UniProtKB/TrEMBL annotation:
[2Fe-2S] cluster binds at residues 96, 128, 188, 260. Its cofactor is [4Fe-4S] cluster; [2Fe-2S] cluster. SMART domains: BATS (SM00876), Elp3 (SM00729). Homodimer. Transmembrane segments: none annotated. One of its GO terms (biological process) is biotin biosynthetic process. Belongs to the radical SAM superfamily. Biotin synthase family. This is Biotin synthase. The keyword Mitochondrion does not apply. Binds 1 [4Fe-4S] cluster. The cluster is coordinated with 3 cysteines and an exchangeable S-adenosyl-L-methionine. Catalyzes the conversion of dethiobiotin (DTB) to biotin by the insertion of a sulfur atom into dethiobiotin via a radical-based mechanism. It comes from Hymenobacter busanensis.
Length: 336
């Protein structure tokens, strides 16, 4: 079992080490608990874009901001399934569907998402969703439909949170994570740096994640991609050294977790991404968009994998969820 009793002082001491010392320590933890050179490849598709009633200061999908994002209703099932098939053919093993909702509502749209989940699960992919807040009943329905993981980021520290979002509370986010965990879903939760927070805010967010009753199975580390029309449009780009501190500290605190190098990767040359993999990152999003922001495409990532000697992680490695298809179980058995 991995520690969930980290003190804030311990996390501060880890985070504030000289960066090369921190990366070296994280690399050693990574070698002990992960397969070196193996990276999970995920694809994220916006199945319902724009028109969100929330006020997240970084988000171009908030209805109150004028960002040029074209809102659209839920995509047709066939379009989502085709996108999942293309992602699998390109090497992705996890397919995440995002909807710009504040919360899930028990209506026909949710029923359609459940059907999408089932169809993508039948392809043998790990299916993830990020749909806003969910209650325990909705999380259970997603699990029954074949969902593997649910993403709900903390975004930042509890202390800084009110500067970024006022339309839901920090505890609302923690409640959703608890509902996801109770339903037996894999938990995906991380945050964004570059929101005007301090180093101590970053430390506190990592401390919160690492002291949940169980570590999230996935922790995305996002660098803000500033978008014109949002309140954070003029924020400076996050440096690779800031990303390294976040990734390396997350790896040490949560050795068994997939640490995902997420938004902001489009602006990072391969040399910077290589440092992040060395520091313990072992998951990426591949495909030209992350919901509405630019991201490296499949071809660029395949070239990077070849250059760095990286290999894609298989679906359902070390775990076959209840409700997985015969295909998924067979593929997992071959890997065991």
């Amino acid at each position: 079992m991995f520690r969930t009793d980290w003190t804030l002082a311990e996390v501060q001491a880890l985070y504030h080490q000289p960066v090369l010392q921190l990366v070296a320590q994280a690399a050693e933890v990574h070698r002990q608990h992960q397969t070196t050179g193996e990276v999970q490849v995920c694809t994220l598709l916006s199945v319902k874009t724009g028109g969100c009633p929330e006020d997240c200061a970084y988000c171009p999908q908030a209805a109150r901001y004028h960002t040029g994002v074209q809102a659209h209703k839920l995509l047709p099932d066939a379009e989502v399934l085709a996108a999942a098939q293309r992602a699998k053919a390109a090497g992705s093993t996890r397919f995440c569907m995002g909807a710009a909702w504040r919360e899930v509502r028990d209506n026909r749209d949710f029923d359609r998402v459940l059907n999408m989940v089932t169809q993508v699960n039948d392809l043998g992919l790990e299916v993830c969703a990020t749909l806003g807040m969910v209650n325990d009943y909705q999380a259970e329905r997603l699990k029954e439909a074949g969902l593997y993981a649910y993403n709900h980021n903390l975004d930042t520290s509890e202390e800084h949170y009110g500067e970024i979002i006022t339309t839901r509370t920090y505890n609302d986010r923690l409640d959703t994570l608890e509902n996801v965990r109770k339903a037996g879903l894999s938990v995906c939760s991380g945050g964004i740096i570059g929101l005007g927070e301090t180093d101590e805010d970053r430390v506190k967010m990592l401390h919160t994640l690492a002291t949940l009753p169980a570590h999230p199975e996935s922790v995305p580390v996002n660098a803000l991609v500033p978008v014109q029309g949002t309140p954070l449009a003029e924020q400076p780009r996050v440096s690779v050294w800031e990303m390294l501190r976040m990734i390396a500290t997350a790896r040490i605190l949560m050795p068994g977790t997939m640490v995902r190098l997420s938004a902001g990767r489009q602006e990072m040359p391969v040399t910077e991404q290589a440092l992040c993999f060395l520091a313990g990152a072992n998951s990426i999003f591949s495909g030209e968009k992350l919901l509405t922001t630019p991201n490296p495409d499949f071809d660029a990532d395949q070239q990077m994998f070849a250059l760095l000697g990286l290999t894609p992680r298989k679906s359902f490695k070390n775990h076959v969820p209840e409700g997985a298809t015969v295909l998924a179980k067979a593929e997992a058995a071959v890997e065991a």
